[in-house]
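Hi F.,

I've been meaning to write this up properly since the lab meeting, where we talked about keeping a consistent format for the predictions we share between groups. The idea is simple: the sequence comes first, exactly as it goes in, then the structure tokens exactly as they come out, then a line or two of notes. No screenshots and no reformatting. I'm using this chain as the first example so we have something concrete to point to.
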Amino acid sequence: MHFRYLSICLWVSAITCTNATPSPSNEPDYPEVIPGPGLPSLESLGLTSADLHRNRTMSKAFSDSAEFLVVCIAGGSTVSVGNAQACVNYLANLGTTDCGVPANPGVISFCVSGDASICGTNIWGNGQEVHSWCSDVAISAQAIVNGCQVTSGQVEGYAPAAQNSNLQVDVEPLEIC
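Output, unedited:
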């Protein structure tokens, strides 16, 4: 909530009121980054949502290691590149943490920020869970963010997880995952 001024009233024999202008914050408001079920909290990683939003891309060496088919969805419900990138950054920070997708329901959200969700879909088809390192999910999600942006700063698409093509990584609106 923003206020133009703050009115402070003190009781000292009589009421004395002064107006004080709060110092403006240089920190923009960022959507909260919400980890998926069973994944580490931002606090446990020493991160904040603002940290993840301010870092606009993964390291070039990390994101260039992905060479696989990325499918961009045109005309669908796209999401903010900034919100998707914050989730990519969160997943990249998890390194070799397991990002697994159960057989049923077969889809799980790994991260949500604002309108964006990065989720995994189990395309194995044999009734078993699929697993990948969260950093590999991040590599695929970064490839989607890099390759599927439209001029309005929006993105949507999917790709196989790096190192495990049985796990599909989706950058989608929250309501789809």
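Notes:
The radius of gyration is 21 Å.
Residues 47 and 177 are 24 Å apart (CA to CA).

If this format works for you, I'll send the rest the same way.

G.
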